Amino acid sequence: MGMIKSTETSLDDQAIIASAEQALKDIASIRAEVSKVIFGQESVVENTLLAVLAGGHALLVGVPGLAKTKLVTTLGAVLGLAANRVQFTPDLMPSDILGSEVMDQDETGRRSFRFVKGPVFAQLLMADEINRASPRTQSALLQSMQEYHVTIAGQRYDLPAPFHVLATQNPLEQEGTYPLPEAQLDRFLLQVDVGYPELADERKILLETTGLGEATPHAVIDAARLMEIQKLIRQMPVSDGVVDAILSLVRSARPGQGNEATDKHVAWGPGPRAGQAMMLCARARALYEGRLAPSLDDVHALAEPVLEHRMALTFAARAEGMSVRDVIAGLIKRSRS
Predict the structure, then answer these.
(1) Which CATH number does 17-235 carry?
(2) Which pLDDT tens digit goes with each residue over 269-328?
(3) How many CA atoms lie within 13 A of 49 on its CB side?
(4) Is the bond preceding residue 94 a cis peptide, omega within 30 degrees?
(5) What is the largest CA-CA distance in the chain?
């Protein structure tokens, strides 16, 4: 019996390796297709894609005009997902996102209610400038992100599968913004910081996007294939060493766990969701980089996008001009030594 079991396992392993190798090819094609339209910004493209491959939502933070919206529409096209976009404004109501009931009247004059679905009923929802909407509207979106359904007038409506929200946010110093509550930020698998392009990339942007013909992205996979890859990522084994590294990194970011620098600078740290995000994204990153198993490198590379929006500094640390990134850099350094 033992022998039969071991051959079964090896067959399973072979099947997983074969499907992982196919996933590697698909992800390489996705990367190639995205790079025809989005120049440079490799880490932004990578982290946004990792969030989707790992089955979650991402928050893209950066000043206006850095092609955040273009990246999301490109990803929708390349992944073959039905995409919708909502521009968040201070007067946007929850029903503008979720949908609402309208009254119909038939020929006989009988009246009835009909639910008209809002833009949230998409496989990829781009929530543009999410921090411009009121907390009430933000929470309507964030609730659907968590529960994958909406409830209108006591009736439940399931969202399509897969369902991903890629939200963009301007830096909070800007006028007319409502910061997202901490508990809501935790709903995002990753925070992706979008910076200005490198010189060579900006030159390419100038030359490629101001002529007559602009490259248009084509679908490389479809929604069903994306869900297969997401399932495969959850089946990838993670070594004990990597699990331990994830746990020690996440725990060292919490005050009261024996890390002196954290106790001094961090007001509150990441909860268990941070570790879950790291487990999923480390596997996705391994595939993205062409490997079949996650490594410590993946943990260190993901520390910032996974932890940054799940921690807050003490008043004293902020007064000293420290940033959450500085603290995370210190934690990575400590975990490497």
Answers:
(1) 3.40.50.300
(2) 899 999 999 999 999 999 999 898 999 999 999 999 999 999 989 898 989 988 889 999
(3) 32
(4) no
(5) 78
